[in-house]
Amino acid sequence: xxxxxxxxxxxxxxxxxxxxxxxxxxxxxxxxxxxxxxxxxxxxxxxxxxxxxxxxxxxxxxxxxxxxxxxxxxxxxxxxxxxxxxxxxxxxxxxxxxxxxxxxxxxxxxxxxxxxxxxxxxxxxxxxxxxxxxxxxxxxxx
Length: 142
Description:
The protein has about 140 residues and is an all-alpha fold. It has a domain at about 20-110. The chain contains 3 helices and no strands. It has helices spanning about 1-55, 60-115, 120-140.
């Protein structure tokens, strides 16, 4: 009986983890999209201003080329930094969410097994755990 309960829970837990990972992936994608679009739009605005300067004769072809390269390089660097920052910010949060889910799932399995396990098995498990704790305590005192 305990094996069947555990199997059902493990299947449900796999689905919960998949849902969490999909949600986290969507969150990362959205944050990256918003962050990089903002940078890209700023670069497009700068390129429009540069093009207007060139058309009005306010900058030479050499100045135009230099400024265009500066804008493109700045955009690439800003996008890389933005992506790195977003990934770093979310990595810790995602790890915490996954850890919390796994801990909750482990408690559910333990509780379910405890409810369906025979009393003798539970008493034996408690005795083994008590013996292990006593052994660790004695080792700690030494």
